[in-house]
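User: Just a sanity check before I run the rest of the batch. Below are the C-alpha cells for the first item. I only need the designed sequence back.
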C-alpha cells in the first residue's frame, strides 16, 4: 500500500459509494483502491447511463485518472481528471474532480460520500 493509505488524515476511497453534487437524481458509483491503483464504476442517475474510471494514487492521497461515460442520449464522454479527496465537517469524504474532457471542455465537479449500495434504487 502507498504511504497515503496509512495516513488517517488522507481519505481512503476503497469501497466507498459517492454521488455527484448536482442533478436530481444524480449519478452515483463506487470507488476501489488497491495499492496505488484506483478504479470506479458509475451507475445510472441524471443523464448518465454508465461509466468507468481508472487511475493512479499519488503519495498525497489525490489521484490522476481517465474516465469514459455513456450518457442516456448514447453520447460517449471521455477525459482525464485530477481528483482530490478530503473529509467534510461530518467526517464524510468529498472528492473535487478537476476534469478535462477530450472535447476540450474542463471544470471541477464534486462528489460526496453516500450510504451504499443504492444500485437499482429509484
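Assistant: Here's the designed sequence for the first item:
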Amino acid at each position: 500500500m502507498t504511504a497515503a493509505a496509512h495516513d488517517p488524515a488522507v481519505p481512503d476511497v476503497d469501497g466507498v459509494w459517492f454521488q455527484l453534487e448536482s442533478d436530481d437524481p444524480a449519478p452515483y458509483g463506487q470507488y476501489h483502491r488497491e495499492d496505488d491503483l484506483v478504479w470506479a464504476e458509475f451507475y445510472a442517475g441524471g443523464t448518465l447511463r454508465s461509466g468507468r474510471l481508472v487511475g493512479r494514487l499519488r503519495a498525497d492521497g489525490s489521484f490522476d485518472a481517465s474516465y469514459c461515460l455513456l450518457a442516456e442520449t448514447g453520447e460517449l464522454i471521455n477525459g482525464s481528471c485530477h481528483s482530490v479527496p478530503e473529509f467534510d465537517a461530518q467526517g464524510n469524504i468529498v472528492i473535487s474532480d478537476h476534469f478535462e474532457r477530450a472535447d476540450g471542455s474542463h471544470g471541477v465537479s464534486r462528489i460526496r460520500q453516500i450510504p451504499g449500495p443504492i444500485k437499482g434504487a429509484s
